[in-house]
Amino acid sequence: MEHILKFRYLKRSVIAFFVSAIAIVWISSAYLIYSSRIENLKQAHIENEKLADALSAYTSLVFSSIESRLKDTAKYFSTKPPLKPLDPEITELLGEWVKDTKGIFSLNLFSEEGTLNQSAILSDTGEIYVPKKKLNFRERQYFKYFADDWKTEKQDELYISNPVRSKVTNRWAVPIVYPRQGPEDKFYGLVVTILQVQNFMEFFTRSEINQDQTVAIANTNGIMMLRIPRAEGIVGKDFSHGVLYTKHLKASPNGSYEAKVVTEGTERLVTYRKLEDFPLIVVVSKLKQNILSEWWKQSIISLIFAGIISIFLGYFLRIILRQATVLEGHEDNLRQQVNDRTQELQSALLVAQRISKSKSEFLATVSHELRTPLTSIKGSLGLLNEGILGALPDKAKGMVDIANKNTDRLIFLVNDILDVEKFMSGKVKLDIQPIDISDLVQRAIEENQGYAIENKVKFVFNQPPTNLKVSGDPYRLTQVIANLLSNAAKFSFDNSDVEVSITLNNNHARISVADTGPGIPEEFHDQVFEKFAQADKSDSRQKDSTGLGLSISQAIIEKHGGQIDFETKKDVGTTFFFELEIVQ
């Protein structure tokens, strides 16, 4: 009887162990899911804050430059009233100041009655012109602000108006106004410049804004001045009733929060920066749904993984219980088997936990580390390189150039890895259109001359038949040609030619890139188009290669319904080529 009781106790202990193990698996998965959600939101806030800091700094620099120009202009003309309207000499002078000031496209002098006396407008082609019509801006909001209630304390005030439709260009623009004070502190008119919303949009577009990020600039009254991506009816609209103005700005000039934004009614993570010297607010936001989309995928994977482990543990528990039932009369043997099985399951649980940890670390690395906010680094280096913060010493400029190039290389590597993932998951969509393949190859060669110069080779294009068209995505095909040119330049002997040619082959256009390098070893032929494939590891490092270019190129060509291959000969060189069907 005592033996039977011991056996039953052991049986209950084994059941309790497995139930506890399954509970631990699910509790661990729940904790990982919760922690991952918090980390995703935290990382999104950090990315928003860095982009908001960079964009607010740029905005302050632009408006400071404009303020300085307006003050200098007002001072210059305070004692020199224009003798005749639209004087060509004054137009020329104002035009030089417009070209010298970043962000504006016109300088205008208005009389105290609101008439445009002098003007210089920068056209899209870089020419200076003046309006042909005699314009009067007496009814504009900014003119009434100064003219209807002129006070001496306004004589040094910069006024940033609400966005308006320009009478000259019919585009959205922001008038920036500074008063002209005449003798005896009288109101003498205005100096007005027009800041086109488009100017900011072009800079912000160059700032590596993510697809799920929205950027906006508004004034402190709640009037929207700019939004990227563009949306109909947003510019010029009053959003002062939103939670940003009614709650957060009252608490702090800078901050972050989660809310349903009034512009589109979606849940977003919002970061805002109020400029210190100007009545403007820079807002960066991310769609919360997009931020958590990757988290949802990770959560599903974690749940599936927990389910598999639970099934695995349940399966072993079932085996043990069966063995226990069969061997119930043989306690000693049964005890030994149970102990053995328990030890095996404990080892299996430890392995499963290690696998779960490795999986989580891998997902975290892919989701966060590879998406390190290069936007802020690239934008800041660009500001330094353009001299916006002042001229740099030669040594400092050299270091900035090196950092800029290394940033570009890192972006290139991340883009390659993301391209591989997109092609593997079938997320790539091609913009198929008729292409003159000769023109495409010629442009690709011109855009990649840097590879030739860096590797001391020369790209030679054997002129193909004219009007030879294929159907494809210009961007992706240019990417393939760039990869082939890069490889050929890297592995060719110094001072040699890399020959590029286009030939006809059974209603197909064959684009070939031939180098004069050492050739590809025969034992490596089957691995050329594999991911991270490198024939000589040490040499690959010297040539700055990731081993992804050919794999991506093969995926792109196959997506176009074509094929890519190579021919090689030792110490003579290698020719890579791909073929696409010719279209009429």
What does this structure look like?
The chain is α+β, with helices and mostly antiparallel strands. The chain has three domains: 1-372, 2-Layer Sandwich (Beta-Lactamase), CATH 3.30.450; 374-418, no CATH class; 433-581, Heat Shock Protein 90, CATH 3.30.565. It is built from 14 helices and 19 strands. The strands form four sheets. Strands 1, 2, 3, 4, 5, 6 and 7 form a seven-stranded antiparallel β-sheet that branches. Strands 9-8-12-11-10 form a five-stranded antiparallel β-sheet, with helices on both faces. Helix 6 (288-326) packs antiparallel against helix 7 and helix 10 (437-447) crosses helix 12. The protein is flat, with a radius of gyration of 34 Å.
Question: Which descriptors would you attach to this protein?
Answer:
single chain, 584 residues, alpha+beta, Beta-Lactamase, Heat Shock Protein 90, five-stranded antiparallel beta sheet, 14 helices, 49% helix, flat
